[in-house]
Amino acid sequence: MPAEERTRNYAQQRARVDELSELGVIDRLWRLPGQMANVGIWSAPSTTDLHHALMSLPLWTYMTIDVEALATHPTVDGRATP
């Protein structure tokens, strides 16, 4: 993609990520060193909502996304729950 378009798309991506973070959809993001890749913790009420959030990213069409569902662990603060 042309440099001007790339700069614009990255700025739009950053703005959307900031919005999703403020909404609580993105909890945490980490960059994988040496790669153009990230790992994140996202929260959404449903898989459909998560899908819509991911599709709202300006660079969606250029991304490869793998989703792993997480479940609550049976311990809280190191204590077993009843």
UniProtKB/TrEMBL annotation:
GO molecular function annotations of the record: isomerase activity
UniProt keywords, alphabetically: Isomerase
Residue ranges of domain Muconolactone isomerase in the record: 1-74
The keyword Isomerase is assigned to this record: yes
InterPro entries: Dimeric_a/b-barrel, MLI_dom
Heme in keyword set: no
Pfam families: MIase
Protein name as it appears in the record: Muconolactone D-isomerase
Organism this protein belongs to: Sinosporangium album
Organism lineage string: Bacteria, Bacillati, Actinomycetota, Actinomycetes, Streptosporangiales
